[in-house]
Design goal:
Elements: E1 12-17, E2 22-23, E3 29-30, E4 41-48, E5 59-62, E6 68-74, E7 77-85, E8 89-93
Antiparallel strand pairs: 1-4, 1-7, 2-3, 4-5, 5-8, 6-7
């Protein structure tokens, strides 16, 4: 399956997370926050459903545990993506131009 094979429906968006846990050389997973369950995740929208109010390319914060994770093969290898509904997006990150 390729990323171009996935088209979210309705108010769902497909996100490429930009912040993730760090894995030590010993294989231990270390989260970036001491209060992981409350920490939102940052990501970039790579596809949006036809009813979504968000657009491809937007950087956002979304809730960590209300998402569906999937691994997709890209030209750069396997990457983990996340699918969430519009209601689980907390904020758009605006960039200065």
């Amino acid at each position: 399956m390729n990323i171009s094979d996935i088209q979210p429906v309705g108010q769902n968006v497909l996100i490429l997370p930009t912040e993730s846990a760090t894995k030590s050389t010993a294989g231990l997973v270390m989260e970036h926050s001491s209060n992981v369950s409350a920490a939102p995740v940052r990501g970039t929208i790579v596809a949006a459903g036809d009813e979504s109010k968000f657009k491809k390319g937007q950087s956002i914060f979304y809730t960590r545990y209300s998402s569906f994770r999937l691994t997709i093969i890209t030209p750069d290898g396997e990457k983990e993506f996340t699918m969430v509904s519009d209601d689980d997006i907390l904020a758009i990150i605006k960039t200065k131009k």
